[in-house]
Amino acid sequence: MRQVQLQPGADLSGFRQAVRTLVAAGIGPEEVAWSTAEPGLFGVEPVADKRSDAPPLRLPRAVATLVEEVVPHRDPERYALLYDVIWRVAQGQRELTEIASDPVVHRLELMRKSVRRDIHKMHAYVRFRQIETPPGEPERFAAWFEPDHFILEAATPFFVERFRAMRWTIVTPVGTADWDGSALRFGPPGLRAHVPAGDAFEAGWTGYYESTFNPARANPKLMQQHMAKKYWRNMPEALAIPNLVRSAGSRVERMLEEEPTVPTKRMPEGALAAMLDQAPASLAELNAIIKAAGPLVPGATQAVVGEGPERAGIVFVGEQPGDEEDLQGRPFIGPAGRLLDRAMGEAGIDRKDVYLTNAVKHFKFEQRGKRRIHAKPTAGEVSHYRWWLMRELELIEPKLVVALGGTAVLALTGKQVPITRARGPAKLLEDFQGYITVHPSYLLRLPDEDAKRTAYAGFVDDMRRVREIGAAAAPSRSRAA
Ligand code: URA
Predict the structure, then answer these.
(1) Are residues 68 and 160 in the same domain?
(2) Are residues 299 and 225 in the same domain?
């Protein structure tokens, strides 16, 4: 019997090294004992040095992904089960992970689901608190979270993307993640006592939660299913839950009698506001958060959120609302929007069937006399709003995402791309088919009529292709799953 001793937690690189060595030496799963405890069992021979020269093992992508996603699971048997599958794949059963009835594959799939759920919960329920820092030092934030599995490394890139401009630490019983504004470092486990219990902003956040809580949907059992009580303890707004649930019945009656209202409460400004948001369950919830967060650059009248069916097959992404959109609170209703409507109509696309949204949700402008002149959003502003755009797409799960112009492409891919070269079907995001075309305002800006006519005809051609691709496309990956 060979013993493989791995680091406690999710030791992905140790596991990969060991697998390489074992497969190269022809050692089957029944001859291996996996452990994360100290070695020393009688009759057990350790596996060769981790840094062995065994050749890399070529595994199908599906197996490699399964390994990455299951290694963070807490079950001590995970390494043995994964090695069982890898061994059989290496012996020639290349499609093994597609056989859902295989008992080992089945167990691993359940583990994968559980890890994914845990990561999702961490993304949704982490709440940062401001830490006191000496005057003149940058602000710092900390959060406490208790994951079910060893997901810290897998889950934290989300927070880096979301809160890149801030300095924060996430403390958990299985490790600590620290972001200093440029590098992410992982450290030893911490204690809940290392994180302050509350800060000055919590009252505001609890108030915001109360203002958006929908008593008609209050279902304590379901709420606990989604949010185990252990998470409630970390969440300032959770203090309000028992009261809200208790008063839900009478609040529903009152709500039915009242006119619908737009939440007017604003979350605290800037980075902190961004930090407080949620993984919303519906577009309505997402849009309430966008509206409450307020503009990044002051001046806009209101947030202009996306518009269209919740399950639209095609999503169009523009740049930012213009003057008319800002005043009326609806996307694509000004001159560029009217041109887009016309081109879609000529191509057989009904505006009512598609979802129209923008990379940036607030109008940015320069005031010249009485006129408000559109000002292009910076890459930093586009990245600030990216999280919202991604949540919109995750909720809608369209078949096709159409980028109208360079800012939309930047928002979707993080890259500046010359539109004339990239125009047409494109890989914008992993889970959805993509298409790049010009922004309709580009057509409006062309100086001479001939150029306008030609460019418009090309735009209508694009819309036709969009309609065809949208009609033919398979459902998005997440919708298919
Ligand atoms: N331009 C955009 O990109 N979006 C709008 O909503 C209006 C004009």
Answers:
(1) no
(2) no
Q: Is the pLDDT of residue 15 over 90?
A: yes
Label the pairing between strands 314-318 and 355-358: parallel
Asked if 435 and 423 touch (Cβ cutoff 8 Å), the reply is: no
Q: Stretch 375-391: mean pLDDT, rounded? A: 88
Is position 252 within any domain? no
Ligand 1 binding pocket mutation candidate from 357, 358, 407 (most atoms within 8 A of CB): 358
Q: Domain residues for 226?
A: 200-247
Q: Are residues 290 and 319 in the same domain?
A: yes
Helix and strand totals (H; E) in the chain: 20, 15
346 within some domain: yes
At 64, is the secondary structure helix, strand, or coil? Answer: helix
Q: What is the mean pLDDT of residues 244-265?
A: 45
Shared-domain flag, residues 423 and 441: yes
Question: pLDDT digits over 461-481, tens only?
Answer: 999 999 999 998 777 655 654
- Looking up tokens 């609170």 gives 329
Each residue's pLDDT tens digit, 98-112: 999 999 999 999 999
- SS3 category, 416: coil
Report yes or no: 322 and 374 within 8 Å, Cβ to Cβ: yes
d(CA 353, CA 346): 15
Q: Of the residues 304, 317, 320, 443, which should be mutated to test ligand 1's pocket, given the most ligand atoms within 8 Å of the CB?
A: 320
Tell me how many domains the chain contains.
4
* Both structure tokens of 304: 């202009």
Return d(Cα 262, Cα 211) in angstroms, integer: 10
Q: Is the dihedral of CA 19, 21, 24, 28 positive or negative?
A: negative
Q: Tokens standing for 268?
A: 């605290």
Atom index in ligand 1 nearest the CA of residue 330 equals 6
Of 120, 151, 182, which residue constitutes the final position of a domain? Answer: 120
Tell if the pTM clears 0.90, that is, is over it.
Answer: no
Tell me if 337 CB under 6 Å of ligand 1.
Answer: yes
332 and 217 in a common domain: no
